Amino acid sequence: MTEIAQQIRRDIVTMIRSARSGHLGPSMSCVELLVSLYFDRMNYRPKDPTWSERDRLVLCKGHAAPALYATLARAGYFDYEELLTFRKAGSMLQGHPVSRTPGVDVSTGSLGQGLSIANGIALAGRLDGKSYRAYALMGDGECDEGQVWEAAMTAGHLGLSNVTAVIDRNGVQSDDATEKVKRKEPLDRKWRSFGWQVLEIDGHNLTQIHRSFDLAESTTDRPTVIIARTVKGKGLSFLEGDANSHNASFSEEDLEWAMDELRSWE
Amino acid sequence: MPPLKEELGKILVELGREYKDMVVIAGDLGKSTGASSFEIFPERYFNLGISEQDMIGTAAGLASAGKIPVVSTYAIFLVGRAWEQIRNSVARDRLNVKMIATHAGISPYADGASHQCFEDIAIMRCIPGVTLVLPADLSEMRHAVRAAVETTGPFYIRLARGEIPRIFEDDDEFQIGKARRIKDGPDVGIIASGFLVPEVIKAEALLRKEGIRATVLDMHTIKPADNEAILEVARQTGAIVTAEDHNLLGGLGSTVAEILHGETPVPVEMIGIHDRFGESGELGQLMEMYGLTALHIANAAKRVIKVRDLGNRRGLRS
User: Fold this and answer.
1) In this complex, is the C-beta atom of A146 within 8 Å of any C-beta atom belonging to chain B?
2) Is the ipTM of this complex over 0.85?
3) Which CATH architecture has domain B180-317?
4) Which of A126, A146, A177, B96 is the 20 to 30 Å CA partner of B63?
5) A105 touches chain B (CB under 8 A)
6) Which CATH superfamily is domain B4-158 in?
7) Global pTM?
8) Mean local confidence (pLDDT), A127-145
9) Rounded to 10 degrees, what is the CA torsion of B30, B31, B35, B36?
10) Bridge-partner residues for A59, per DSSP?
11) In the CATH hierarchy, which top-level class contains the domain A2-264?
């Protein structure tokens, strides 16, 4: 899985290079989380994307679309070559996810809306007596949004144990460090007080991610949020943790260099 | 006249018995809208509290997993508070979410400006793919809610508060997107939706007493609009009045004018809210103050007839 993660990082750089835009930093930080979901955790059938028993992922932080697309391609939803059409006219790989892409259940891109959707999916699953789970991959910046806390209250109130939220806690949002823009901490206590089981892990450590998903699955009385501490721009030394990396545009030279660095890991 | 909320509750329960995938989401106003009647299916009724954005998002998730969620609260909160959620989480994916708003327009008269929603048609009309219906009476409400549940895609149904009139028979033909002619007359065409339809019927009677015979069109579906019916009335009468309890910017009048201007540019007089906020008062007082009464409508009809005739005379001279 470490190798898949590295491959996906290279794919992300390739896509953003080809599109000449896209969110590099926030895509890099959630790669292990997505790899763990798609290559270890979730049940799905790439050739039957609407299979009724599938687990669902809502990419609440829709700007990490490059990471999702690269993961979906590697998981077999569509050809790798499609990745080169990212952000281009006529492509199914839009700047932010849309549901016409195989493997994308709901369109996202506007922050703060995804957790409510995951709750709705989980409620439907509960009503139908299905065992699928709803995963919400959230950004830490989007925890500024009021709707996140409305949804947190709903899932806590309804005891939606089939919802797992994962917060990509990379500490940086669009303008600046998250704690500088609007203080999020103590994030764990906030979620706990809303009725959630809170797990804090290293979001690049596949073993820790695996264990936290196990724990979420075995908890049957409340939803789980995994606060995954990550590094924005992970894998690219010139970018890691940089407050300016959210939606920066990169020169061809930077991206060439990024690719070299990722290749050197092999 | 029967209380709207009781009747809405009845139709929801009736549909809930037929459609096991139907769920109802309320926002702490279930008792005011009538949605709480659905509590007889406790596993399919969710009161999500005072959180409209979360209501819409949860409905989007439910719909994406095959349910038929009906979301109901006051118009201003439902589409005002959660407009971007409706656009981005529901409409972009053409999700099967049924938004049933009550307390729209002038109807929460005593509550004042915060509750009187005069903007919902404008802001919902510009979201692609949302069907927008304004039932004028009990039978139209029943038909519209049933059609919403039975038709795939996002629906917005705009209702008032208080009592709901009876104008049509239940077995009268009702079809989404098909305006219905209530009266036929050659002199002027009056087009109305929802709450003001009864007032327009009164205006037609006033005009008839003065020898003016009006066609009255109940345009219950604003989107998709019945272009053909509107153009036909315009061709037959050459003078149009629209009537709505909504801001004149972007509502029914605007819709009709957009349809007419290219093919049949006849003069149009618009009755509605003149780009202002509401205020508290008795219903009758506010109808007078906002210029929405039958007399206002009848006078508008006379004005537009004059404009048409003046234009015709000028046309003859040139």
Assistant:
1) yes
2) yes
3) 3-Layer(aba) Sandwich (3.40)
4) A146
5) yes
6) Thiamin diphosphate (ThDP)-binding fold, Pyr/PP domains (3.40.50.970)
7) 0.96
8) 98
9) 90
10) A137
11) alpha beta
